[in-house]
UniProtKB/TrEMBL annotation, chain A:
UniProt organism field: Streptomyces longispororuber
Source organism phylogeny: Bacteria, Bacillati, Actinomycetota, Actinomycetes, Kitasatosporales
Record has Transport as a keyword: yes
Protein name per the record: Amino acid ABC transporter, ATP-binding protein
CDD domains: ABC_HisP_GlnQ
Top-rank taxon, per record: Bacteria
Length: 278, 326
């Protein structure tokens, strides 16, 4: 269905993602209570956990769709959404003395940063008034990275990569859920991100369409892109993940390779959850 | 629902045993006759015919006078004024409406409050009051100047000169129109799914691009029909400019009517027909604009009237052939 990764165009080098002591409240409700997580370049991390455990919020904080109340995220050592106060172009993880001294970046800079982080939504969120090709070509053209013709060329290439070369002119509403999600993945790839975040990419799909989307994600994993995937597909997690992170109540309960977390969970909560979803 | 499956089978087979020898699936379904509908249709047709007959034959309407007036230069001059005032006010009103809508959706509480108050005030005050108020504005503000607020002025206009009748009409209508257009635009923007904003933000699309290429085209789908409704209201509201001594379509008819009192009814009919024409033109434009923004929103674009007529004729012909064959 898809071309082998070797034939695919060169992507940006896989990125490192560091999440440091992230806390998030909705009103008085604590959603995330101190998350520390490091994703190495090319690593595939699957985040599991019951609904309301903060999985989606964590993902949305990584690309700054939501702001952490405490803590910070960095991609390839660059802080996302904030900068250190006073320090001129200092990079790296802030030290203890920098705490509480982070300053919000301008919206424009945050938007630029987001270009390096792909995001795939549960409900696709394709732009309904644009064709599949226009959906994919929009970001590289709008951000001025590519000329219009080049962006369309790239979009055509990426649609081919997710097996939808023949659907370039179709409007999203005419595509099946699985096809829409594959267009959404191509759209995320168009900016050549160093990391792609997947927020339950198959939860809104009919069961028989799940496979085609998972196949595309598997392709990306094989191609060496850093992936963070929130999913309920345990079988898929076992197959693809380098690391499984189990989240509950806004905290990481345990993490490790799938052979440990999925097959020999150490915590009662993890065992309990796995017995319910398997 | 609780019957055993055998019962349904028996029911389905029953008619074939006592019916004619033709197999069941070859039989034609006779549509249900609806005598009530035929009677009501006949009554309505008679009423419509009566009305049309009255319209054509009643001397009260003086159709000969109507045709005398319909293309008179004085009426056409008025029509031109109506079109001008409508066009300026529609553009300025929409522009103001977009600004006010963005104000109401702004994160700044001050901008929100100011926009809300403006809309509240202008929707509360009758348009005729706004117009007459502006008409007398030169008495209220002797000069209008551009400069530092509360500070020195760089240059100034003479109030009475600025306030030509046309300007008063356009400003008054635009002020009023902006308040309504703001709500139309705001409603349209709110109708765009939150996911679209998120997807655009997640892709890092520049803010202007997000608004112009992602949010606005989708918002226009609900803005267009509502704004056209507003526009039709505006076309008719321009008849009020007569009260600030601007001779629009209605105004010229009114003036002619006072000179030729016997022609008031045909003059009103002239005005009616012109307004009907204007509204029709706007409706046709609306259809095609809506069709343009329906791209991707519906699986099939709505057919144009011509195409609908063609398929209608084809279907009718097929039906007649079918009826004849049976």
């Amino acid at each position: 269905m898809t071309a082998t990764p070797r034939e695919a165009p060169a992507d940006a080098p896989a990125a490192t993602v560091e999440v440091h002591d992230v806390h998030k409240w909705y009103g008085t409700h604590l959603v995330l209570g101190g998350i520390d997580l490091t994703v190495r370049p090319g690593e595939v991390t699957v985040v599991l956990g019951p609904s309301g455990s903060g999985k989606s919020t964590l993902l949305r904080i990584i690309n700054h769709l939501e702001k952490p109340d405490i803590g910070h995220v960095s991609v390839n050592g660059e802080l996302i959404g904030v900068k250190r106060r006073g320090g001129r172009r200092r990079t790296g993880v802030p030290t203890a003395e920098d705490r509480g001294r982070l300053k919000e970046l301008s919206e424009r800079t945050i938007l630029t940063q987001r270009g390096r982080i792909g995001f795939v939504f549960q409900n696709f969120h394709l732009f309904p008034h644009l064709t599949a090709l226009e959906n994919v070509a929009a970001a590289p053209a709008a951000t001025g990275r590519l000329g219009k013709a080049e962006a369309r060329e790239l979009a055509r290439e990426l649609l081919g990569r997710v097996g939808l070369a023949d659907k370039a002119g179709a409007y999203p509403r005419r595509l099946s859920g699985g096809q829409q999600q594959r267009v959404a993945i191509a759209r995320a790839l168009a900016l050549r991100p160093g990391v792609i975040l997947f927020d339950e990419p198959t939860s809104a799909l009919d069961p028989e369409l799940v496979g085609e989307v998972l196949a595309v994600i598997k392709d990306l994993a094989a191609g060496g892109t850093t992936l963070v995937i929130v999913t309920h597909e345990i079988g898929f997690a076992r197959e693809i993940a380098d690391r499984v992170v189990f989240l509950d109540g806004g905290r990481i309960v345990e993490q490790g390779p799938p052979s440990e977390v999925l097959d020999r969970p150490r915590h009662e909560r993890t065992r309990d959850f796995l017995s319910k979803v398997l | 629902m609780s019957e055993p499956p055998g019962a349904a089978v028996a029911l389905a087979e029953a008619p074939s045993t006592d019916g004619p020898s033709k197999p069941l699936r070859a039989q034609r379904v006779v549509p249900l006759r609806r005598p009530g509908r035929w009677i009501v249709t006949a009554v309505v047709l008679v009423l419509v015919a009566q009305f049309a007959h009255g319209l054509a034959t009643n001397p009260f309407y003086q159709w000969d006078r109507w045709s005398y007036w319909f293309l008179r230069p004085s009426i056409l001059d008025g029509l031109l004024i109506t079109l001008e005032v409508t066009a300026y006010s529609a553009v300025l009103g929409l522009a103001g409406g977009i600004v006010l809508a963005l104000g109401r959706l702004s994160r700044s509480p001050v901008l929100r409050a100011v926009s809300w108050t403006y809309i509240w005030a202008l929707r509360s005050i009758p348009l005729i009051v706004v117009l007459l108020f502006l008409y007398n504005v030169s008495a209220l503000y002797e000069t209008l100047s551009v400069g530092i607020p509360f500070g020195p002025a760089f240059f100034s206009f003479d109030g009475s000169r600025l306030a030509t009748d046309m300007a008063v009409a356009v400003v008054g209508l635009s002020l009023n129109e902006a308040a309504y257009a703001a709500e139309v635009v705001r409603g349209g923007i709110l109708s765009v799914d939150q996911g679209q904003h998120e997807a655009a933000a997640a892709l890092g699309l520049p803010k202007r691009y997000q608004f112009r290429r992602i949010v606005l085209p989708q918002a226009l789908r609900s803005i267009v029909p509502n704004y056209v409704n507003q526009l039709i209201g505006l076309i008719k509201a321009t008849s009020l400019v007569f009260y600030v001594s601007l001779l629009d379509l209605f105004g010229s008819a009114q003036t002619m009517g006072s000179t030729y009192p016997g022609d008031i009814v045909p003059l009103l009919l002239v005005v009616t027909v012109w307004y009907l024409i204007l509204t029709s033109v706007v409706s046709v434009i609306q259809f095609y604009v809506e069709r343009h923004y329906a791209r991707g929103a519906t699986r099939e674009l709505p057919p144009t009237p011509l195409r609908r007529l063609r398929t209608g004729v084809t279907e009718l012909r097929a039906r007649i052939r079918r009826e004849a064959a049976v």
